[in-house]
Amino acid sequence: MDRAPRFSRRDTLKAGAAIAASATLPAPLAAQAPARLKLRLLETTDLHVNVVPYDYFRDAPDDTVGLAKTANLIKAAQAEARNSLLFDNGDFLQGSSLGDYVAYKKGLKAGETHPMIAAMNALPYQCGTLGNHEFNYGLDFLEHGLARAEFPIVCANVDKVGGGTLIEPWRIFEQSFEDEAGTRHVLNIAVIGFVPPQIMQWDKAHLDRKVTATDIVEAAQKYLPEVALAHPDLTIALCHSGIAGGERRGGEENAALHLAKLDGIDVILTGHQHLVFPGAKAFDGIAGVDNKKGSLHGKPACQPGFWGSHIGILDLELEKREGGWKITDFRVDPKPIFERTPDRKIVPKAQAEPAILATVKADHEATLDYMREPVGATSAPITSFFALVADDPSVQIVADAQIAYARPLMAQTQYKDLPILSAAAPFKSGGRGGPGFFTDIPAGPLAIKNVADIYLYPNTVQVVKVTGAQLHEWLERSAGIFNRIDVAKSEEQPLINTGFPAFNFDVIDGVSYRIDVTQPSRYDLDGKLVAPDARRIVDLAFQGKPVDEKAQFLVVTNNYRASGGGNFPGTRTTIVLEAPDLNRDVVVRYILDKKTIDPTADGNWSLVPLPANVNVTFPTSPAAASRKPEGLKAQAVGDAGEGFAKYRLGG
């Protein structure tokens, strides 16, 4: 493929003597005001192979995603500033159908350029870091992908077994900038990167006995003294980790706030949470976080959404003092590529850059062909509009396919006589993905794009052995998605805890149970037991009889959950099968075998009914009105904001 033209790197040159030579001679020794310099830092994060503004699941353009659109804002932001540097904060090699096409259909060999890397190479990235999803396809795939990047990538807390970091932990850049008086100065810019250490759980099959991941803060404490010896004027942490409060215990997944306490770090670029900082309500009230100014313990910080939805803009004011340059003021302003009007319409705020689109044109078109390949048919619509309040056909299909896959495999093992259950979650159920982030497949032909719409992630099948007691705890953790409802209140109460990811709302098929949301959640958002006397899961039964705590079951799940993802109690107890197949491919095979599926939920779980006077609401898509399941008592009651419709339970 011909390389597309590159955007100009405005005075952002690689390290080397050429930059030093470009600096002007020192000013006369006469007394003068300190030199002042403005530097604009730009950030992308969690791009997840979203280059083209296109939804491969809906097979339609999408103005809310895509680096091609983000690039338009980058170009404009660079043009406004004398000095700018662009960084990426990880999770770029996995996450869209384009990424899956490359990983599973086309392949990526040594010397080939991944389309995401091709697109990023067309932008003036100074440096990047790794996200946890970079490891989803294995270390060989990662190595091939990074090899063609034309900008360095750093990560300080992943080490190779046997010694040394997987990639360079940090790098120093000598950069020439122009101050407010027009004089040029050379600054040493240090960049250090971090990834959640939980990669060792989430991608154990790829990483075990090959690499180790250490605590983010401990890794920073190890390498910052080295960085200091390079005499940086500014040290930037590319922290693919989110912002969370509370006492530091070590090994945090979201450690950016703890990292900000360390001397030697001046700016923190965050990611991973798919939120916008400053601004997202999730960050209100956290000690040490200024959600208006955009700072962590007083240091400038940013988190610019996901899938290219925003660029992070951090405008720093630097002053040259004895001992180097210091930040005297800053402004943080994440800019979106779209806005949503009160009537739920999407208004683009950026145009797609042709130069970026050109880098992935062939792979984009090949992905469309791949996603449109037929696999079978469905006799009824498959939706997830009500998946958080009632048993759901989109989850049922996955559960049925996983059991059909695992049963013949386990019949050949010592566990052949144990009951087989299946755990699945509603991956697309609104939330941070917005009102369009739902599964909505009409009756009729099914293509690969539809299956990918049902099962988003490239997980592999695993089977774990649990006791009845562990099964109960698994479901209690899952029930943490619900807020506690007070039946004595008459005012509106939201049912869904928006801080709880829907992919952690496991529904376990093969048993029946009800969820009592008037009880407190037994576990907090991090999976810590906080209410040992609380029980939301009631009437848990197998084949019509109460589940014996000592009984043993097999649960078909995925590698993320089986390796501890989501901090579910008991899931890592005993893994009895690590299958080579993707959960998504298992669903494809199930549909191919059935030819026509009947996506009907079996109703094995439900919420304990609430009194009629209790006003409990939940958000869903405006398109949900014609898809409400039979028997579900819920009515549309207005606008939930941000494009969602509001429904009330009961009535």
Q: What are its keywords?
A:
651 residues; alpha/beta; Purple Acid Phosphatase, chain A, domain 2; 5'-nucleotidase,  domain 2; 2 domains; 8-stranded mixed sheet; 7-stranded mixed sheet; globular; nucleotide-binding; CpdB_N
Brief write-up:
The protein is of the alpha/beta class. The chain is 22% helix and 28% strand.
- Rg over CA atoms, rounded to whole Å, is 26 Å
Give the mean pLDDT.
91
CATH topology-level fold name of the largest domain = Purple Acid Phosphatase, chain A, domain 2
Estimated structural class: alpha/beta
The parts where pLDDT drops under 50 for at least 5 residues are 1-30
Basic shape: globular
Report on the structure:
- InterPro entries: 5'-Nucleotdase_C, 5'-Nucleotdase_C_sf, 5'-Nucleotdase_CS, 5_nucleotidase/apyrase, Calcineurin-like_PHP, CpdB_N, Metallo-depent_PP-like, TAT_signal.
- This protein is of the alpha/beta class and 651 residues long.
- The chain has 2 domains: 38-364, Metallo-dependent phosphatases (Purple Acid Phosphatase, chain A, domain 2), CATH 3.60.21.10; 374-608, 5'-Nucleotidase, C-terminal domain (5'-nucleotidase,  domain 2, Alpha-Beta Complex).
- Strands 8, 9, 11, 12, 13, 14, 15 and 16 form an 8-stranded mixed beta sheet that branches.
- Helix 3 (97-106) crosses helix 11 (361-371) and helix 12 packs across helix 16 (583-594).
- The chain is globular.
- The model is unreliable at 1-30 (pLDDT under 50).
